[in-house]
From TrEMBL:
PANTHER family: UPF0750 MEMBRANE PROTEIN YITT-RELATED, UPF0750 MEMBRANE PROTEIN YQFU. It comes from Algoriphagus sanaruensis. This is DUF2179 domain-containing protein. It comes from the Bacteria. One of its GO terms (cellular component) is plasma membrane.
């Protein structure tokens, strides 16, 4: 949630779908921590990673640490990001603390690679479900958003810097090997979170410049069931024939990454010299996005 909210939207907070997603996410995160990460001193990034370091090194209660370390971040969120978002995040953290306090899950395996990979998968799945439910269990996301708005650094640069410090402390306290496995766990969790939040069908903008633009438009719309946007432009201007150029329609369509290859092959059958460029996009709303029908299987 990027817009400030003046009051708590309690309908959103108690929305059954959001609560179910948060509960499922908390359970997955609890499994990741108790069955994989904590018994082997593997860390996640963010507040959870900080809490695990202090818990394992100084024997301070993990649940208390999760509450105390997240508190200042959620205070910032309450003032700077949104009250509804903050309440949902607090609920998520409280649910995680309850799960860790009352649910005992035995360690699943002693294989360190399996622990890093599956611990990261379960943690990423949990975080992703909680985000889809409207909350967070890690205050670092709050501080990342806040500093991004007030500095020249991007969100990814801030996140990498902060989590690099955590992994450095992990190396100092638990050794290089544990830190390396923690990095593997962290990046696995990041990828899994992305898949859960954004979906496996990541959308892609495909732009085509072709001398057979009319046939290409017909192919994309009628055979693949995709909407298109058309820009008026010119093709040509090659190094050896710079003075030769022709008007053409530049065609842009939004497809999933699973469809890009099939559409490109079909276009190349019409025009082997067609020019493509592909851009990954994060969010799509409106228009015709989903495939209606296709003759190309």
């Amino acid at each position: 949630m990027s817009l400030k909210a003046n009051s708590v939207d309690w309908k959103a907070v108690v929305n059954p779908k959001s609560l179910i997603l948060m509960v499922l996410g908390v359970l997955c995160s609890a499994v990741a921590l108790e069955a994989f990460m904590l018994p082997n001193k593997f860390l996640d990034g963010g507040v959870t990673g900080m809490a695990i370091i202090v818990n394992l090194h100084y024997d301070v209660n993990l649940n208390l640490l999760l509450m105390l370390i997240n508190a200042p971040f959620f205070a910032i969120a309450w003032k700077k990001i949104g009250k509804t978002f903050t309440v949902q995040s607090i609920i998520s953290v409280v649910l995680l603390i309850i799960a860790l306090e009352f649910i005992e899950i035995p360690a699943v395996t002693e294989d360190k690679v399996l622990i890093a990979v599956f611990g990261g998968v379960m943690m990423g799945l949990g975080i992703g479900l909680i985000i889809r439910g409207g909350g967070l269990i890690d205050g670092f996301e709050v501080i990342t958003t806040y500093f991004q708005r007030n500095s020249a650094l991007s969100a990814s640069e801030i996140t990498i810097f902060l989590n690099s410090l955590i992994m450095l402390f992990a190396a100092l306290f638990f050794g290089i090997e544990a830190a390396m496995y923690s990095i593997l766990t962290y990046f696995t969790a990041i990828k899994m979170t992305d898949y859960v939040v954004e979906g496996f069908e990541e959308y892609t903008a495909l732009t085509i410049i072709s001398k057979e633009d009319e046939r290409v438009k017909e192919l994309i719309v009628k055979d693949f069931g995709k909407a298109i946007s058309v820009y008026k432009g010119e093709r040509g201007y090659l190094p050896d024939t710079f003075h030769i150029h022709h008007p053409c329609d530049i065609i842009m369509t939004v497809v999933t990454r699973l469809e890009v290859h099939r559409i490109k092959l079909a276009i190349q059958q019409i025009d082997p010299k067609a020019f493509f460029y592909v851009q990954t996009i994060k969010e799509v709303k409106g228009g015709v996005i989903k495939q209606i029908g296709s003759k190309h299987n």
